[in-house]
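Task 17 of the worksheet. Students: predict the tertiary structure of the chain below and write it out as structure tokens. Keep your answer in the requested format; marks are given for formatting as well as content.
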Amino acid sequence: MADRTIQSTPGLSARIDTTIAHEARVYDYWLGGKDNYPADRALGDAIAGHIPAIQTMAQANRAFLGRSVRYLVREAGITQFLDIGTGIPTAGNTHEVAQRADPAGRVVYVDNDPIVLAHARALMSSSPQGKTAFIHADLHDPDSILSDPAIADTLDLSKPIAIMLVAVLMYFEDEDDPHGIVAKLLEVAAPGSYLVITHPTADFDERAMARVVHSATDAGITFHPRTRAETESLFAGTELVEPGVVPVVTWRPDLSERTAQIVADPESAWYWAGVGRKP
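Model answer:
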């Protein structure tokens, strides 16, 4: 199925190098997906060798995305989302969660992996009342995202939006200026907009995370874990929603979720998570 979809997009297959691991496909592998290749699985397994619970951690991060979107729609009244670093479509995509809570929800997805582009149709199966779009772009160049016609065509930037940066900023070194990139995104967002971030950290096991960084570097992937204070600094210009920047499984946990079984151990998933509101 994936091959047929890729072939239907002119020139797309030429831009997919399956011999090199890609973040979106490694994450897909951990979530139990099928759109990954030997290089992706090799890196995923190498990281799992250092962090045996990585699959559970990826699932906990995905569960947070659902909780945060439900909070934003039901409690904050947000119906517009800019989801950057989307990843390969799986159950519980942002628009699915948002439109269950409000069918008028609108979502723009952004990712730089051509395989995600090949599956973009799954990300654009909107409800009749809402709308979705996909932009093939890289967050390293935020202007290419903000200037894309899909933004103006899908989102009303005069009204609040939610900027979703779930498990993406770890692919940016400090010299890539992630703070400046986040600030540029927030600059175009109306007051009352929200910023959602999760970020892996070495705070819970420094030596294991150092081995993960080494494995990623060997595979040609930048991987930069950050401390709680460094993650909090990415929310500059916003007011943190309670409970602030906390371990991902403890951010407003839904005890009906499978992740409830590990909430008792806040450090069971090595991600910081938070939601901030632009005043």
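Marker's comment: Confidence is low (pLDDT under 50) at residues 1-14. Residues 54-74 form the longest helix (21 residues).
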